[in-house]
Structure formats: structure tokens, C-alpha cells
UniProtKB/TrEMBL annotation:
This is Sugar phosphate isomerase/epimerase. It holds the Pfam family AP_endonuc_2. Residues 99-317 form the Xylose isomerase-like TIM barrel domain. Keywords: Isomerase. GO terms for molecular function: isomerase activity. InterPro entries: IolE/XylAMocC-like (IPR050312), Xyl_isomerase-like_sf (IPR036237), Xyl_isomerase-like_TIM-brl (IPR013022). Signal peptide: none annotated.
Amino acid sequence: MNRRAFIQNTAMASSATLLLGLGSCSPTSKGLDSIGVQLFSLPKLLDNDLEGALEMLSQMGYKEIEIYGPYPFSAAAAHERWKAVTPSLGFTGSGFFGKTAEEFGSLLKNHGLKATSGHVDLVSLQTKMPEIGKAVRTLGLDCFGISAIPGDLRASLDDYKRMADTFNAIGKNAKEEGFKFIYHNHGYGLHEMDGQIPLHIILDNTDPDLVFFEMDIYWTTAGGADPVAYLEKYKGRYKAMHLKDMKEITTFKGDGGSSDQWIELFPLMTSVGKGAMDIPAIVEAGQKSGVEHFFVEQDVVEKPKVALKESIDYLKTL
């Protein structure tokens, strides 16, 4: 596969998780005690050799993982969307990779890993909460939530206000099931819309005891925002973080709401510590803000064995 085709397929894969959505270390200023990885960074390796891929992560030093859907309990629409896009991506696995939650949890334990967070689609969170709660408790997840707001549900400020209400309802149910509901930001919602920043509507109109956030530092930066500033302003709201780096600091030409804008910036994505982002400052701000889970994520990276090792090796030096 040539580089252009790889970048396009990578963007398509990330878009798939957005359409579908689409655990705990103790912060310390002296470094990260437990470094995690979002499994969407290595889907092909997981498809080809699940145990081998997990052992590779363990040997690199990863302790936590973040999973991605769909899952056996996911809404039918999520499975249909996944089946529609995966033939062109070269992988099909997701969720528990053909195993039950119990089997998958045992497999992780055998390799010294623990699932602490995961992404699921919005409809499943609204309609499958008992099933989600059972799986979350089985695996011992701390956080579970959506990777993005579907495009048709974020076209206006009123949409964002309705989404804040939706998040509060989901967060209440999640708390009753024993986990934290998280919203992973992408690159949209950071530019003014009718005089307001859409992401602020969600942050300011959701219950801090019910709704939490997962910061993707790459897409936050691409959206023209400062990760450190958000972490300092909204202490206690961010419980998880996606770590990756940008070869040179660049922002979207538009509002970051469409896949063509994401595709344009994929070539700038690189291993943590290999780019221009101030990773030490962001990690320190995250620790002070209350982030509990730090996940390396390099969306369907072309050479995960190299990139994921580079990233964790760098993070170990902090």
C-alpha cells in the first residue's frame, strides 16, 4: 500500500470509530506510573495475532489498555456501520476480539495488562446500559464513553445544548452502573459558532459529578486550542488523555468538523516525543488537573511496533 492510500485508509478507520461513538493510575509529578495504549493504534496486529500483540505491548511496558467498539452488546446500527467500512481497512476485529468479556479480561491479566477505559457508540449508551454495565464490571473499567459526537447532532449551538442534556442523563446512568462516562473530544467544537465555543457549552452545562472528558491533545491542538489551558481551567473534568505528537504545530483550515480536514493533518502525526508539542508540560498539567489514564494513541499507525515503542520509551523518561 502506498503512503497516500495508507493515510486515506487511516482517516477512514478513524472516521469509522467516530461514527460508532463514535481504569486507574495515581498521578505523580515525578512521572507516569502506568502508561496505557488505545488498541485502535494496532488493529491489524490484534486481528492477526491477538495474544502476540498483547504480549508485545506488555513487553514494551504498557500497563493499561483502552478498547474500542463495536462489542457483542452494541446496538445493531453500530455493527452495520462497522461491517460497511472494515472491508477496505484490512481488519475487522473490535470489542473483545471474538471472546467474551470474561475471557478477554483473563487474557489481558495473563499478559500483565488491564482494560481501564473504552469507547462505545452513543446509541448503545442510550439503549444498552444494563449490558454495558455488566461488561464494564466484568473487565473492571473505570471509564467508558464516546469517541465523538455524530456530525448530524452537532450542527448548531442548540444541538450542543441538547447533547449536554443527553450526556447528563447518560452520566447519571453510568454512575449507577459503577463507571465514569467520558466524552473524547475531536477537532471540532473549538471554534466560535454564533459567538460561543461549542465545547464550552458541554463543559459548562454538564454535571461535574456525572460527565467527564478525555482530551486528545493532537486534535485539541489542531483545533487551535491550548491543551494546558483547558486542563487548568477545567480541573477535575478530564479523567483520561490521548497522547500523540505533531511534527509541526498546525491547525485546521476550517472548523475541524469534516473528515477531509482530518485527512489533511494525518501525515503530521508522529510518535510521542518526536514532534513539536510540549508533551512534558501537557502531561504535568494533566496530572495536576486530575487525569488518571494516559493512553498513547496513534490511529492505525503504519508501523505500530516501532511507533508504540518510541512513544512509551519517551514517556518513561518524564
